Amino acid sequence: MKISASFLSSKNIPKDLEKLNDTDVDYIHVDFMDGKFVSRKTMPFREMRHVSDYTSKRLDVHLMVDEPSKYIPLFAELNAEYITFHVEVEEDIVEDLQMIKDYSIKCGLAIKPDTKVSSLVPYLPYLDLILVMSVEPGEGGQEFIMESEKKIEEVRDLIRSYHVDAIISVDGGINDQNISLCRDADMVAVGSYLIHSDNFQEKISSLR
Ligand code: DX5
Ligand code: ZN
């Protein structure tokens, strides 16, 4: 199981990113919010870009924005392995996925808890990652939605039946108690459970 660390709830981002460099965490999960797609707004890109100054890990970018096309070129400048945006956006999704691929970055689509898995079908051939949200996007520290277990299974079935080469990632409220519900996933994004601990490696190991 790959682990992607979210620093959304961090009180000291540079320090926590540096501490994560000394762990075997696989990616840094960068949550970016525009105050439109979700009500909260994270720091602007000109500040967010400095994440790269503190981490030696590759980035797994999660765009919670109305207009991914505005932000893809910015995040493409960073050391991103994945850029993911939401299937619920109004923009031309195929065009945006193609834009990510044109930067030789892997592309992902995220799906909110109330969105049907079938909404992913038209985009399956383009996807490297499917991000199943196990909380409503917008805040760290929420409780894992139990129905996500079934949703992950549904996505796994979809991937199998369409012979797609995408990984499944799960994001929101994940800890050592509910990680077993994510067994059909390849990766999990973990925030509060990690960041609010004094021993990052111990928490990471408890999830693998
Ligand atoms: C929620 C974010 C998540 C979240 C993860 O909108 O996309 O990445 O911060 O943090 P926890 O693990 O605290 O839910
Ligand atoms: Zn996220």
Overall description:
The structure is a single chain. This protein is of the alpha/beta class. The chain has one domain (2-207): Aldolase class I (TIM Barrel), CATH 3.20.20. It is 29% helix and 22% strand. The chain contains eight helices and eight strands; from the N terminus they run E-H-E-H-H-E-H-E-H-E-E-H-E-E-H-H. It has an eight-stranded parallel beta barrel. Strand 6 (129-133), helix 6 (148-161) and strand 7 form a beta-alpha-beta unit. It binds D-xylitol-5-phosphate (DX5) and zinc ion (ZN). Zinc ion is lined by residues 6, 29, 31, 62, 171, 189.
The CATH class, by name, is Alpha Beta
Structural class: alpha/beta
Oligomer: single chain
Which descriptor suits the 3D outline?
Answer: globular
Strand order across the largest sheet? 1-2-3-4-5-6-7-8
Task: Enumerate the distinct ligands.
Answer: D-xylitol-5-phosphate, zinc ion
Q: What number of domains?
A: 1
CATH names the topology as TIM Barrel
- How far apart the termini lie comes to 6 Å
* Name given to the CATH architecture: Alpha-Beta Barrel
| Biggest sheet architecture | 8 strands, parallel, barrel
Strand content: 15-25%
Using only CA atoms, what is the Rg? 16 Å
**How many strands?**
8
Q: H/E element string?
A: EHEHHEHEHEEHEEHH
